Amino acid sequence: MLKVENLYHAFNRRTILEDINFSVEKGQLCGLFGPNGSGKTTLFQCCLGFIRPDKGMIRFLDKDIRKLTIRETAQHVAYVPQHHTQPFPFQVEEMVLMGRTPHMRGFYKPAKKDQAAARTAMERVGISNLAREPFDILSGGQQQLVLIARAIAQGTDMIFLDEPTSALDFRNQTLVWKALRQIADQGTGILACSHDPNHVAWFCDTTVVLGSPGLVAKGDPSKVFSQQLMDEIYKGACEVSHAMDLKIILPSGLTRHPAEAAGC
Ligand SMILES: Nc1ncnc2c1ncn2[C@@H]1O[C@H](COP(=O)(O)OP(=O)(O)OP(=O)(O)O)[C@@H](O)[C@H]1O
């Protein structure tokens, strides 16, 4: 579905992306992972055509993305940015309905199926109760859920999400990752960037790990997330452990509370 080949990009002669190669297939949830400044947002921007890479090829559904019109791109690809400012006080349901715009014709009046898609997307991320609230007064986490619902309502072949759960509480983080897993299982390709290796390990079936300035590893996170890899990217800050047959990445040097260790 998405194929990135030999991608290079530099800012002010500083190479950020070097020889990046990976693909995301239909039905795959791919976690894009790497330390601050490793180029995740830059890679997203190249894939979405917001910046033109210095070298390399990005294909979407076997087409060079440079040849897709904005409308074609929006019909096939949804994007959830890290931050979004909305200058007008649109209601939440209007914001989510905007995701349907690439599918509307004529006077851009939403049809019943557009309204149904918006309602389903809001239910999926648990924000139906916010439908009539103005978007601009919501908390950062609630706004993040609205943008995810808008991308889901768009009903595209592929969704890009830039740190989709960075502002969410524990329950909503889990809710969103489970929703992404289900949407991928229904055939959508998803590339989601995250700073939490556990989310990638628990919910993603593939990962792309960026370092400086290139690709450090890729593949099944249960195989890729080794102690050696974590040491390479986090310089000894974490330990790879296991719980319930899953990998779990813990901060290194954790000790049990003395009272608990004494069995109190
Ligand atoms: N327009 C730009 N001009 C110059 N340098 C830039 C530009 N955009 C990004 N960079 C630099 O490229 C590097 C990678 O930035 P990018 O935002 O892609 O990283 P990231 O992995 O998404 O980081 P984070 O995890 O902190 O969000 C950074 O050092 C950043 O300063």
TrEMBL record:
Domain of life: Bacteria
Keyword Transmembrane helix annotated: no
Pfam families per record: ABC_tran
Entry keyword annotation includes Phosphoprotein: no
InterPro entries registered for this protein in UniProt: AAA+_ATPase (IPR003593), ABC_transporter-like_ATP-bd (IPR003439), ABC_transporter-like_CS (IPR017871), Metal_Ion_Import_ABC (IPR050153), P-loop_NTPase (IPR027417)
Domain (ABC transporter): residue spans on this chain: 2-237
GO molecular function: ATP binding; ATP hydrolysis activity
Keyword set, alphabetical order: ATP-binding, Nucleotide-binding, Transport
PANTHER family tied to this protein: IRON COMPOUNDS ABC TRANSPORTER, ATP-BINDING PROTEIN, METAL TRANSPORT SYSTEM ATP-BINDING PROTEIN TM_0124-RELATED
Identification of the protein by name: ABC transporter ATP-binding protein
